[in-house]
Write a structure and sequence with these properties.
It contains 5 helices and 4 strands, in the order ααββαααββ. The protein is an alpha+beta fold and about 130 residues long.
Amino acid sequence: MMKKLIYITFLAALVSSCTESLEDKAAREAKEYTEKYCPTPFINDSRTDSASFEKTSRVYTYYITLRNKADNKQAIDANKQKLHKLQKEALDNNPGLKKYKEAHFTFRFVYHSAKNPQQVLLDDTFKY
């Protein structure tokens, strides 16, 4: 009986030591996504440059570049609420992010200008 208890305890410790926290998983996935896919090709004048995850604040950030007609600060400012609503709907309907939303992560989207890469066109945050 004692051997079984020791064996079960050892297996439980082994399994739990190999599991990755959700924060570690998010950081790893953001890094792997950036290395594998970024920068993405432009689609509708938008491309993802990178993704990152900050463990302490639990913020998953996407850095995006806009070009051509989408690279228009005045139009973005005039349509901030509409853009926020569309991005929120996209997040809400993304099943791949379900575990992060259930864990109350924050998602941030930082849009930069292709004409002037230092210019932030929009910085939008969504808390779950």
